[in-house]
Amino acid sequence: MSIIQVIIFAIVQGITELFPVSSVAHGIFVPTILHWNTVLTNPAFLPFVVMLHLGTAVALFFYFLKDWVHFFRSPFRKDPGSSKDRKTFLLVIVATIPAGLVGLLLEHKLKDLFTSGRSAAIFLIVNAFVLFLGDRLRRNTRSDHLSLDLHELSYGKAIFVGLCQCLALIPGFSRSGVSMVGGLMTGLKYEAAARFTFLLATPLIGGAALLEVPKLLKGDHHYLVMALLGGVISGIAAYLSTTFLMKWFKSHEVQALRPFGYYCLIAGILVLVLTMF
């Protein structure tokens, strides 16, 4: 891969991993639209993409560093906030399990979808309607006064959010998007659903990296260097994206997901038409 290709991939990954528009789908769209066909068929492409995800996970970890410090210290604290931190940490652990197990069981079957721009476009269109559904649910929960903070979530509902994340194993579905909609369905506020989604990303992406990144170490040294560069760039883009999105969801009480839904709908249709002709 050239440096230009790495930079483009990394910026797209850093933005789309956090925005509810499917980073995996965009990782397929970019080489499809730009005719970088040899990139998608390279055996090292998936580990390279995972390295970009790893950069995103590191950025998220540092963005929420204060939260993680509180989580790890909560068993040894006795202040009033320690119980809330312990509960939130357990919720993150519980919600991570479903997607982790499904990912391990279906890893090889789902890889077959990674080179299909058409299927990713179709699922991205479906993702758009999932986001529209999330906004509609949010309006209904506001009328019923069901706006929960994260620590108020039950463990059963956390598992439900984790199950929603499993959809993101299919290219075209956004992990952050389906997780947020799942959170809204349980009664979480936009900001709480976004925070939960971003906290869940770190262990999930870290687990995927443990499986795929070692494959880069056994491969071409050039590809490893490019992947490390991409991971750094992706991390910077992800940190900036997280900063923007947390402010966005905090300031928008209704229809916060709708603009992203319109984007997914338009992008999915355009890519679908391009792949057909």
Q: What features would you describe in this structure?
A:
By secondary structure, this protein is mostly helical. The chain has one domain. The protein is 78% helix and 0% strand. The protein has twelve helices and no strands. α10 (190-217) runs antiparallel to α11.
User: Taking Cα atoms only, what radius of gyration do you get, to the nearest Å?
Assistant: 18 Å
| Shape, principal axes of CA atoms | globular
Average pLDDT across residues?
84
Question: Which class of secondary structure composition applies to the elements?
Answer: mainly alpha
According to DSSP, the number of beta strands is 0
Number of helices: 12
Distance separating the two termini: 27 Å
Reported for the largest beta sheet, the result is: none
Number of domains: 1
How much helix, percentage-wise, in residues?
over 70%
Helix and strand element order: HHHHHHHHHHHH
User: Strand portion, in percent?
Assistant: under 5%
List low-confidence stretches: none
In short:
The chain is mainly α and 277 residues long.
